[in-house]
Write a structure and sequence with these properties.
406 residues; alpha+beta; nine-stranded mixed sheet; 14 helices; 43% helix
């Protein structure tokens, strides 16, 4: 149990450290905020010229920077009631197919004697027809002892291996959907949107591992399939800790006149109120200009082999009235094909249905969850299987005690 008086004492003992951090954080935020606002007065060509020769500036603004005097593109719509917003969302999504896949995993770990785990991925496809046609299905896969014990390198373990298995299955399901929508333009259909719950831009921690390479290969192949089939996908990140805009501002500050912060994130920079200035990104539906993502410590695989151009870009979208914006990772080809505004409108509409979060992802997540009761059912099924095959299987006394006490 938690002892409140000990917690209070521990917090009080660190009071000066918290206050010092807050003071420095606010000073840094003010400096970066001023620099980000000033970025809106530059042209994309000027910024590109300044960044010439810089291998990993974090982000490169697209031509959208030339259209405004700000890095923010206003949505330009407002409604008096949520019902009005829903009518706009219904019209935006009508006869448009949206799709999402999400997964969960089950790793009994040392609670059982037989190394085994499982992953479950659910998909939700909504055609948004007047008849209410949708599809909800699930995939289930067992991760065998051989898969768990082989590993990728010395730094991989059961949890990381199972997480990769779930990731692969999520991408496999999304890839199958992309193939099913190939040729949508020739058929005269509205732009379909496939949601991926997470980033399309994998950061690399050095030294690089085989496990990281596996993640990169999976997501890069997904982005390339989206480009080749011309079927849009969006990586939706609700709580983003990316620092691509922060790195861009550091790179542009060649004279090092500004601060250098390691604690600021893009979403904080866009959403914070500094010195009575309203947040840079504030009104519902507004978004930042599209930027190419050239992240520090990213894999070269995220660049096109022939042109060297980035494969993934991003924009930040205000999907609620009060919370920090969401990050949308979007394949660059979507922007180049002139589909970005249509795709972002679909994301806005999905967020109206999901009250700030895409309804398609919400529905897939709900269907994918593995509950405590499901875990018990899984263990019983494994036990029955082990008995039939004369395999060693047992549940630890500690795990059995937890089940009794909880």
């Amino acid at each position: 149990m938690l002892y409140p008086h000990l917690l209070s004492q521990a917090l009080e003992s660190k009071r000066e450290e918290f206050l010092r951090f807050d003071r420095v954080w606010r000073e840094d935020m003010g400096d970066y905020s001023r620099r980000l606002r000033a970025l809106g007065g530059l042209s994309a060509q000027d910024v590109a010229a300044t960044l010439s020769g810089v291998k990993e500036p974090g982000a490169i603004p697209s031509g959208e920077l030339d259209d405004k005097t700000s890095i923010v593109l206003p949505f330009g719509r407002s409604w008096r009631t949520h019902e009005e917003a829903r009518r706009w969302a219904i019209a935006t999504l009508e006869d448009r197919v949206t799709f999402a896949a999400d997964g969960s995993q089950l790793v009994p770990g040392r609670d059982i004697s037989l190394p085994v785990a499982a992953v479950q991925v659910a998909l939700f496809e909504n055609s948004h027809t007047r008849g209410g046609q949708y599809r909800k299905e699930a995939r289930f896969a067992v991760v065998s002892p051989q898969e768990l014990l082989e590993g990728y390198d010395d730094r991989s373990n059961a949890d990381t291996i199972v997480s990769l298995s779930r990731f692969r299955l999520e991408v496999e399901v999304l890839s199958e959907w992309i193939e099913s929508k190939r040729g949508w333009q020739e058929r005269g259909e509205r732009t379909p949107i496939g949601f991926f719950d997470g980033t399309l831009m994998i950061s690399i921690a050095l030294p690089k591992t085989k496990l990281q390479d596996a993640y990169v290969d999976v997501v890069v192949n997904l982005v390339k399939l989206s480009r080749e089939a011309r079927v849009p996908i969006v990586g939706f990140v609700d709580q983003s800790y990316a620092r691509d805009l922060v790195w861009l501002l550091d790179t542009l500050d060649s004279g090092k006149t500004g601060t250098r912060s390691r604690s600021l994130f893009d979403t904080q920079l866009l959403h914070a109120s500094i010195e009575e200035e309203p947040p840079i990104l504030n009104a519902w539906g507004d978004r930042t200009i599209f930027c190419y993502c050239v992240r520090k410590n990213s894999s070269e695989a995220f660049k096109d082999e022939e042109s060297g151009e980035p494969l993934v870009g991003f924009t930040y979208l205000q999907t609620t009235g009060a919370s920090a914006p969401a990050r949308l990772d979007i394949p660059v080809w979507i922007y180049q094909a002139g589909l970005l505004n249509d795709v972002v409108d679909a994301v806005r509409a999905e967020c109206i249905s999901g009250l700030g979060y895409p309804y398609a992802i919400e529905a897939a997540d709900e269907a994918a969850v593995i509950s405590a009761r499901d875990r018990e059912q899984f263990l019983r099924a494994v036990q029955d299987f082990a008995e039939r095959e004369s395999l060693p299987f047992g549940v630890s006394r500690k795990a059995a005690s937890k089940v009794r006490r909880r």
